[in-house]
Amino acid sequence: MRAPLLFALLLAATGVGAADYVAQPGSTLGFTATYQDEAFEGSFAKFTPVLRFDPADLGGSRLDVRIALASASTANVERDEMLVSSEFFDAAGVPEARYVATVFRSLGGNRFVADGTLSLRGVSKPVPLAFTWTPGTQPVLAGEAKLSRLAFKVGTGDWTDTDLLPDEVKVSTRLVLVPKAG
């Protein structure tokens, strides 16, 4: 075995150095909102995160997530049809949302913040993602963010009434990762 290959394998095994990761089955991207004072949860069945992360070198880290908006589901057919409509996600007009973070901050221990930008419905706004990092052969990134749906024009017309549908939406993710084949 050549020395560079052996060195790369040792780095990967010890978790030293930035690595590119892709999500595995069991990864989730979800959201929680409230309608008429009743909380509901939803998720995206199709999303593609690619992560470069090294807790010791946050400057070289990057998170890029592509989200297929038509894959939104809340287990309620009527609500799901509304979510993908032009009044909410407009999945036919702008089928994908994207989250890109290139600035990462340590909060101590295994807690971090990715200072990223969410692009949704033609609007791009900063959205920090607070997360924990659990290293290992299949590292796990578990994070949460809060955002204003109205800032992204999600819920137009009568849906701008925050008495019916509050502005704040909580987004959560749990990424089970493996190194990207290369």
What does this entry look like structurally?
By secondary structure, the protein is mainly beta. It has one domain (18-179): Lipocalin, CATH 2.40.128. The protein contains two helices and eleven strands; from the N terminus they run αββββββαβββββ. The chain has an eight-stranded antiparallel barrel with strand order 1-4-5-7-8-9-10-11. β8 and β9 (123-134) form a beta hairpin. It is elongated, with a radius of gyration of 18 Å. Mean pLDDT is 90; it is low at 1-16.
Give the SSE layout.
Elements lengths: L2 H12 L4 E5 L4 E8 L2 E7 L2 E7 L8 E7 L3 E2 L3 H8 L11 E13 L2 E10 L2 E12 L5 E9 L19 E12 L3
Antiparallel strand pairs: 1-4, 1-11, 2-3, 2-11, 3-6, 4-5, 5-7, 7-8, 8-9, 9-10, 10-11
Kindly list the characteristics that best describe this protein:
182 residues, mainly beta, Lipocalin, eight-stranded antiparallel β-barrel, 51% strand, elongated
Per CATH, the superfamily is Lipid/polyisoprenoid-binding, YceI-like
What structural category characterises the helix and strand content?
mainly beta
Shape: elongated
Per DSSP, the total helix count is: 2
Task: Characterize the biggest β-sheet.
Answer: 8 strands, antiparallel, barrel
Report Rg.
Answer: 18 Å
**Percentage of helical residues?**
10-25%
Summary?
The protein is mainly beta and 182 residues long. It has two helices and eleven strands; from the N terminus they run H-E-E-E-E-E-E-H-E-E-E-E-E. It has one domain: Lipid/polyisoprenoid-binding, YceI-like (Lipocalin).
